[in-house]
From TrEMBL:
SMART domains: HAMP (SM00304), HATPase_c (SM00387), HisKA (SM00388). Signal peptide: none annotated. Residues 264-478 form the Histidine kinase domain. It comes from Streptomyces subrutilus. This is histidine kinase. Residues 197-249 form the HAMP domain. PROSITE patterns: HAMP, HIS_KIN. It comes from the Bacteria. It is found in: Cell membrane.
Amino acid sequence: MRRIAPLGLRTRLIAAFLLVAAICAVTTAALTYQKARNAILKQTQDTAVSSLREQIEQQTTRLPMTQDQLQAVVTELGKRGKPHPWTVFGEYGSLRASSSSAAPFGPVTDTLRRKVRENRYGAFQRVENGSGDPYLTIGIAAVFPHGGVAEPTGAVYFASVPLTDESRTVQAMVDAAKQGAVPAIALAVIPALLAARSVLRPVRDMRRAAQRLGLGRLDTRIEVRGADELAGLARTFNETARALEHSVAELREAEVRARRFASDVSHELRTPLAGMLAVTEVLDEDAEQLDPDTAKALRLVSAETGKLAVLVEDLMEISRFDARAAELNLDDVDLAVAVGKTLERRHWDDGRVRTDLPPGVRARLDPRRFDVVLANLVGNALRHGGAPVLITVRTGPGEDGERLLVEVADSGPGIAPEVLPHIFDRFFKADAARTRSAGSGLGLAITLENVRLHGGTLRAANGPFGGAVFTLDMPLEAHA
């Protein structure tokens, strides 16, 4: 199922603003409609009730009433209807009369008759005829004064007042509210855009500042505008960036001092180490003529001096990489010849290392650094993996041209999962107890830096049938 991309903050702000505007417009229109409708209907209702009561009081009623008398009163009341023409119905006992021969007694309901009997001041009810037209039906009982008290005559008059004009007025109000709501919401887009812009401007500034900060421009700062929450966030960002810049500057200074120290120490150690190596070589030749204990001590001194020399050379090499002083001396190289020379120099052509080298594969690379890369990978495979070690060379297409793929696979137990993420770390050793190994702990780190210098990558993994596999991926045409 395809996920719908979330809406941006700008879209959500505008939508929220328009939603609030729409709710306010609808609520205002609804309240206005309700108040105006009630006011219009109440005015019509009060006028009709007052007028009917006044007209009834002006009528002379003789009791008991006859049908003709009831009809005459009803007809007279029908002529005097205000504010609209009335249809008047009269009831007196079993007698019934209407001011219109065409009008039935439908508007007069039993509920209205009951209310009129219960309330001597009259009652009213809003009803609709068969066509759906609204009517106001008013009922008032006729009374006569007797001894200061209004006594009922028994006659009840009902007036049915059409509310067509009022209904049209209310409908016109509804239409006006509908027609006005759409432009109002459309006009609300303008302040919504302005509000979204004022809110999003500092957010955009902060995003760009964060991107610049991520690119290493630690002097990035945001202009603080106003004193609201966004301004507070901008100030916090500036304070954080300032503290980060200070901390990174201190770390860089410490790193530079550490690199200079390692480089200086390595350089200073090279001269005495060269003399020590020359002496130990001479002493190694005469070790057989010495007593066993002295010979053993001499060989130990010679071996440890050799390890120290290797460590010093590796430290100087890694210092050049850290100082970005390493350079490529490119040459056109036949891969089969280069691999063969590397194995021959280190006496690995005795069957412990096998090769799968297609003929005629040539690459433009630094021969010395490629030799270091291959030697470190094969030496690591023989030392920590197991023979036989297989070197496979392949070429293949890549996004930026032809690529050189070199695999070095051993026959050992493989690399532990917890070790894999740290395999190229400096001075990292998978076995903490193996502190006296022949390596300096920098071999794979130097290998990785040499591969990166060629524009390539180096990956470590475990083969499907056991053993570690190191895969070198670099362009056939490296650039200095």
